[in-house]
């Protein structure tokens, strides 16, 4: 076959794949109708798990790797669940069906809000009438006056945080929240004509975007930044100017609508940048029982001590999970605050009704802002053994050392990315001895994932070059995310620690560094889990642990890198509630048995150093022994 023939073949297969996907989608809508007739929840994770296991096995026989199959399947399931939810909502709220739907949002064509509005309304299969607004207030006015059916408002961003103006406006509107959606944000430098970064003199952008890209902008000291009401205004301006010395910052998709092209991509400080939007309308909607729902409400409690805690205990008492809590000052009343709360519950459920009644009795003000289908479809995982649910019961005896069991009786459990340390299954960390190239890093990540390990560690700062370290952090984080792994690096200086804390899931504190005290204090103030290697003097290490815990960070684990004798390991575990990891070294063929014995002795995680060729033969049998007995 020549190239053209092969491509024809591929195109034919792709079109068959699409036909099959469309058929699958139609079937999943049939499932939704049947679940409406015989009420059952839309999501059935047991069914998903069974399907996934079957597909992974089938895929293996066809030469497809497990990770690839899982990723595709998650995308299909997410679409299936969201389509089923949309269908149920349509059936339950027939007034939403109309040939044309109008929506108000911030900015012009191409703004992130515009892209979010189009994405949200695409499910209605109606034509869209767009109302461009200049302020959030104008969006609310446009919906309140009936000119638009829906308004789209950004409420929080993963890198710049909550959008306070929107919270403040929600206190006073008569509108209801009827939906939410999360939009990935990728800021690019957009230009209208052929040019390069060195020619740029002025950049037009929105203040929020400016804040999210502050690190990149520091690399362009000679470039003047001008603020616009929205990124789409910046794009329109630059498209009109058609000059090589001006650029706009915004999304590539939005820029394309104005004829702009991206000169540099991925400008945001945090690479995983997402904005959550809420959708508001004049009337509240009803959310079908079978759909995971969220309810948003605002409340103000009195100033007496413990008033907020009392209110939150009401939620806990009804087994209602809170997904967001934000406090905002009450205008005109400087000493009181309004709390904005999101919970994972349907407002009509008996638990939520009863919680609201109880809250009504103990708060000064409470108003439900809306109940809407949750847009989060968390991927189903293949069970790797249920996680221990053992609760932690801190005892507030200040004189006890913080690391000790006298201070906290139960073993601590840390969350590392989406994995747990201190749960039933041990954590497996693969540490690369030297920084590999990107391709090798991906290869290592794939191997680790396929063997069942969870954390990929690589030295980002081994040559003292902080700029290069930053690039490595980004690369490590991207590769780890690609393979659904957590990422770790070793840090020896405060600056390294702060940088690594922005990107990675776990930080290893290097021993024997100058200015150790400063490093430990910074570690105690950061919010990432930490791994503290034990020194020959264990008591000195526990004193260091106490220093960290006292500063606030409770996510601390110890690493035995010197092969402590079993009795000492056991004694250590009686002494401290901090989880313990062991570094495995020595004859590769003995490591699985060694790890198994240590696991039996209560060690909760293992670090294994890999260099190139070694890993294929070490990782798989080790993981097999650890996870399959
Ligand atoms: O089988 C079902 O119950 C479905 O709703 C279909 C489906 C799927 O698309 O395969 C979707 C959602 C459920 O969580 C499980 C499976």
Automatic annotation (TrEMBL):
<keyword id="KW-0413">Isomerase</keyword>
<dbReference type="InterPro" id="IPR002701">
    <property type="entry name" value="CM_II_prokaryot"/>
</dbReference>
<dbReference type="Pfam" id="PF00800">
    <property type="entry name" value="PDT"/>
</dbReference>
<dbReference type="InterPro" id="IPR036979">
    <property type="entry name" value="CM_dom_sf"/>
</dbReference>
<keyword id="KW-0028">Amino-acid biosynthesis</keyword>
<dbReference type="GO" id="GO:0004106">
    <property type="term" value="F:chorismate mutase activity"/>
</dbReference>
<feature type="domain" description="Chorismate mutase">
    <location>
        <begin position="1"/>
        <end position="88"/>
    </location>
</feature>
<dbReference type="InterPro" id="IPR045865">
    <property type="entry name" value="ACT-like_dom_sf"/>
</dbReference>
<keyword id="KW-0584">Phenylalanine biosynthesis</keyword>
<feature type="domain" description="ACT">
    <location>
        <begin position="296"/>
        <end position="373"/>
    </location>
</feature>
<protein>
    <submittedName>
        <fullName>Chorismate mutase</fullName>
        <ecNumber>5.4.99.5</ecNumber>
    </submittedName>
</protein>
<dbReference type="InterPro" id="IPR036263">
    <property type="entry name" value="Chorismate_II_sf"/>
</dbReference>
<comment type="pathway">
    <text>Amino-acid biosynthesis; L-phenylalanine biosynthesis; phenylpyruvate from prephenate: step 1/1.</text>
</comment>
<keyword id="KW-0456">Lyase</keyword>
<dbReference type="InterPro" id="IPR001086">
    <property type="entry name" value="Preph_deHydtase"/>
</dbReference>
<dbReference type="Pfam" id="PF01817">
    <property type="entry name" value="CM_2"/>
</dbReference>
<dbReference type="InterPro" id="IPR002912">
    <property type="entry name" value="ACT_dom"/>
</dbReference>
<dbReference type="InterPro" id="IPR010952">
    <property type="entry name" value="CM_P_1"/>
</dbReference>
<keyword id="KW-0057">Aromatic amino acid biosynthesis</keyword>
<dbReference type="InterPro" id="IPR018528">
    <property type="entry name" value="Preph_deHydtase_CS"/>
</dbReference>
<dbReference type="InterPro" id="IPR013785">
    <property type="entry name" value="Aldolase_TIM"/>
</dbReference>
<feature type="region of interest" description="Disordered">
    <location>
        <begin position="383"/>
        <end position="403"/>
    </location>
</feature>
<feature type="domain" description="Prephenate dehydratase">
    <location>
        <begin position="102"/>
        <end position="282"/>
    </location>
</feature>
């Amino acid at each position: 076959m020549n190239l053209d023939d092969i491509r024809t073949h591929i195109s034919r297969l792709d079109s068959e794949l699409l036909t099959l996907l469309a058929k699958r989608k139609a079937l999943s809508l049939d499932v939704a109708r049947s679940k409406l007739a015989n009420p059952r929840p839309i999501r059935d994770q047991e069914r998903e798990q069974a399907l996934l296991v079957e597909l992974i096995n089938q895929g293996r026989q066809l030469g497809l790797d497990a990770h690839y199959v899982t990723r595709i399947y998650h995308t299909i399931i997410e679409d299936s669940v969201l389509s089923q939810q949309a269908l149920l909502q349509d059936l339950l709220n027939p007034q939403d069906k109309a040939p044309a739907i109008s929506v108000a949002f911030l900015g012009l064509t191409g703004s992130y809000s515009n892209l979010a509005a189009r994405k949200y309304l695409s499910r209605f299969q109606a034509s869209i009438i767009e109302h461009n607004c200049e302020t959030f207030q104008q969006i609310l006015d446009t919906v309140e006056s009936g000119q638009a059916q829906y308004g789209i408002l950004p409420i929080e961003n993963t890198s710049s945080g909550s959008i306070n103006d929107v919270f403040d406006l929600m206190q006073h509107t008569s509108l209801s929240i009827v939906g939410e959606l999360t939009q990935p944000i990728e800021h690019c430098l957009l230009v209208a004509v052929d040019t390069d970064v060195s020619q740029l003199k002025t950049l037009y952008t929105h203040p929020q975007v400016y804040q999210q890209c502050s690190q990149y902008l520091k690399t362009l000291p000679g470039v003047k930044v001008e603020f616009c009401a929205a990124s789409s205004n910046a794009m329109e301006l630059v498209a009109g100017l058609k000059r090589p010395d001006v650029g706009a910052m915004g999304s590539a998709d939005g820029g394309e609508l104005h004829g702009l092209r991206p000169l540099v991509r991925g400008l945001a400080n945090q690479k995983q940048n997402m904005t959550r939007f809420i959708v508001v309308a004049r009337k509240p909607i009803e959310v079908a029982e079978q759909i995971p729902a969220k309810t948003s409400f605002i409340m103000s409690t009195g100033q007496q001590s413990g008033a907020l805690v009392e209110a939150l205990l009401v939620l806990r008492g009804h087994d209602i999970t809170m997904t967001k809590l934000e406090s905002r000052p009450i205008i005109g009343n400087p000493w009181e605050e309004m709390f904005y709360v999101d919970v994972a519950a349907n407002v009509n459920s008996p638990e939520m009704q009863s919680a609201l009644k109880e809250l009504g009795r103990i708060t000064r003000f409470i108003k439900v802002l809306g109940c809407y289908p949750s847009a989060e479809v968390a991927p189903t995982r293949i069970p790797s053994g249920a996680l221990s649910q053992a609760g932690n019961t801190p005892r507030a005896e200040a004189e006890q050392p913080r690391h000790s069991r006298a201070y906290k009786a139960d073993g601590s459990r840390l969350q590392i990315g989406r994995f747990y340390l201190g749960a039933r299954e041990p954590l497996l960390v693969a540490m690369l001895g030297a920084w590999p190239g990107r391709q090798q890093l991906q290869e290592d990540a794939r191997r680790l994932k396929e063997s069942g390990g969870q954390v990929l560690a690589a030295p980002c700062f081994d040559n003292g070059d902080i700029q290069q370290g930053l690039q490595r952090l980004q690369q490590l984080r991207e590769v780890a995310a690609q393979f659904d792994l957590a990422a770790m690096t070793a840090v020896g200086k405060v600056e390294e620690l702060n940088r690594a804390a922005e990107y990675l899931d776990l930080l290893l504190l290097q021993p024997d560094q100058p200015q150790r005290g400063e490093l430990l204090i910074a570690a105690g103030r950061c919010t990432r889990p930490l791994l503290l290697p034990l020194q020959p003097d264990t008591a000195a290490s526990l004193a260091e642990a106490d220093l960290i815990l006292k500063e606030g960070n409770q996510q601390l684990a110890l690493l035995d890198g010197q092969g402590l004798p079993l009795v000492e390991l056991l004694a250590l575990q009686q002494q401290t509630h901090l989880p313990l990891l062991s570094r495995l070294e020595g004859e590769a063929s003995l490591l699985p048995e060694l790890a198994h014995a240590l696991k039996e002795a209560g060690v909760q995680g293992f670090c294994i150093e890999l260099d190139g060729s070694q890993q294929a033969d070490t990782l798989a049998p080790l993981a097999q022994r650890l996870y399959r007995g």
